[in-house]
Amino acid sequence: MPSSLSSMRITRVGATALVVAGALAISACGKKAPAQLPPDPGPATSTDTGQSSGGYGMAQPGSQADFVAKMMGADTIYFALDESTVDAQDQASLAKQAQWLQQYPNKRATIEGHCDERGTREYNIALGERRANAAKNYLASLGIDPSRITTVSYGKERPIALGSDEASWAQNRRAVTVTID
Amino acid sequence: MKITRVLALGLMLTVSGTAFAQTAPVITPPAPQDGGLEVTVSDDSAWNDLGIAITTFATDQDVPTRTNAGTTGQLGRALAQVVAGDLKNNGLFKPSGPDGLPQPAYGQIQAPDYTPWAARSADMLVQGFVRAGGDGNLTIGCYLYDVQLKQQLVKGGWQVPPSDWRRAAHKCADMVYSRLSGESPFFDSKIAYIAETGPKDHRMKRLAIMDSDGANHRFLTSGQSMALTPRYSPDYSKIMYLSYLNGQPSIYAYDLATDRQTLIARTGAPTLAPRWSPDGKWVLYSMAKGGTTDIYRISSAGGGTPQRLTNGPGINIGGSYSPDGSQIVFESDRSGSQQVYVMNSDGSNQRRISFFGGRAATPEWSPRGDQIAFTHIAGNLRVAVMNPNGGGMRHLTDSWQDEAPTWSPNGRIVQFFRTTKSTGLASIWQVDLTGRNERKLPTPVGASDPAWGPIRP
């Protein structure tokens, strides 16, 4: 049916547009953004994974260090309380990830799903899996072969923000994409 | 590890035992009433006021033993301390001794002098003996007397290897507790749990076990892979738990005799929330796939095709069998938030039972069958109980974060773990069904996910 085809195309175009808008949207969208964003990975001279064998301190193109540097925080998406919905801000981050993954078609990635500490342990492992899976499905919808992506859930066992407050919990409800070197 | 009940206890002692023939119970224990939780609860205050003197167990010959307590004389004191500790730490009765009490002579164990005990306002008297056998094994006897009636109420004797001496003391405490309360025993049992060390963002989580009083503590895993949510098999031969050993969360069965572990199912997807059926023949696990989680049943002997018990939507997880094995209580967010459901053990007739607001998680069916303990999430996380039909909800705890209840073998006490705000430090606590006698268990490091096993044979 032509109508559904064209609506699909519109969605694709929309996603591409969001890529452009993504960097701006991250700081602008306050709906559920963490009070403190994860540490800025800094300029492309980042050496935080020791993979920067390229010249002049540049991360080697296609490496996890390069991915982290290029994403500028978009390697992580955040979720509302008890939710695993990928919203507009998450879509922008995932589109940025998809762009990188399309540039390096041989790279594989793991998406780690996490929860805040205010839930029961077993349920949070299942919820973290649901979040990682939502991110994976969205990347697949952008044309990334799902066989390149695995998921793992750590539930509430690996918080990144250590406080027991709303701001910390918002940072911990996340899915982090880690490419495999 | 064998504990032998000594039946012909009279033959073990050389003193003339007029008291051995006493079998007729003099005090009628509170009659167990079917479904009458309120009745049982109100009974507590009555027997909780009983003063019980627990004296150093006497020995015929003070000789070395192969226990960590020392000679038979020292062991006699240690045995009485374990018995007193069991009763005291659980808020049961008003135990005193062995320190500060007169020590009965070996010959008095079966023929107590009641007069001084009445003067000390002790209602009950526990005496015992310990003897070393030629084979290194120990024979331990335990006697409960009613001081006012001047009569023996019950006696027990056990032959144990030196390494199991504490079990004889727990059996003695169980005998005293059961005879006086009318409840089933629970002291001679073990707890599997997760030992936690290190900072909040890099916490090491190891599988560990201990006796019901915290003794005989042992770490089972090294901590290289995160371990979570253990469950003892009903016969104590295995522990199922969640491990990140292969990167994905997967359930392993840890064999306690061989210290080997095996994956319970090769699914290619993460498995979590292991549970045993009461007869040990079945294992429940939950598997996350494609964003949904469902509960499966598989034979514990291995082999066979896993049977899927739930079929979405959302997250269906956990599962705790009713004592007769006919039903399973589990958790599902199919309604939009975590709630408690009951189904037949083949997966049929699934129905929600929690309707009191907030979220309800980690249900565990009482070994007595009359209550379901669970985590109630409404702001804070609290441990609560309800009837199997969802009525009669009561909170047992009130703290920032208490979760994952597990029942004592007799269904009188609930253990759970408490997380401290900000630090995230975890510790195991227990509380009785009345909501009283809340206390922290002694563990060498941080502790979570307690799983209380059944009474040992």
Shape verdict of chain A: globular
How confident overall, as mean pLDDT of chain A?
79
Helix/strand/pairing category of chain B: mainly beta
Q: How would a textbook summarize the main sheet of chain B?
A: 7 strands, mixed
Question: What is the CATH level 1 assignment of the domain at 64-112 and 120-154 and 170-180 in chain A?
Answer: Alpha Beta
Question: Which pair of protein chains has the largest interface, and what are the residue counts?
Answer: A-B, 26 and 41 residues
Strand-residue proportion of chain A: 5-15%
Radius of gyration of chain A using CA atoms only: 16 Å
Pfam families (chain A): OmpA
Region (Disordered) (chain A): 34-60
InterPro entries (chain A): Bact_OuterMem_StrucFunc, OMP_bac, OmpA-like, OmpA-like_sf, Pal, Pal_lipo_C
Subcellular location (chain A): Cell outer membrane
Describe the structure.
The complex is a heterodimer of chains A (181) and B (457). Chain A has 181 residues and is an alpha+beta fold. Chain A is built from 5 helices and 4 strands. Chain A has a 4-stranded mixed sheet. In chain A, α1 packs across α3. Residues 1-55 of chain A have low confidence and may be disordered. Helices cover 11% and strands 38% of the residues of chain B. Chain B has helices spanning 37-48, 72-89, 115-119, 165-181, and strands spanning 4-5, 51-54, 58-59, 94-96, 124-132, 138-146, 151-160, 190-197, 204-211, 218-219, 227-232, 238-243, 250-255, 260-263, 271-276, 282-289, 292-299, 307-308, 316-321, 327-332, 339-344, 351-352, 359-365, 372-378, 380-386, 394-395, 402-407, 413-419, 426-432, 439-440, 446-452. The longest helix of chain B has 18 residues, at 72-89. The interface between A and B is medium-sized, with 26 and 41 residues. Chain A: Its main location: membrane. Chain A: Keywords: Cell cycle, Cell division, Cell outer membrane, Lipoprotein, Membrane, Palmitate, Signal. Chain A: It is found in: Cell outer membrane. Chain A: Pfam families: OmpA (PF00691). Chain A: Belongs to the Pal lipoprotein family.
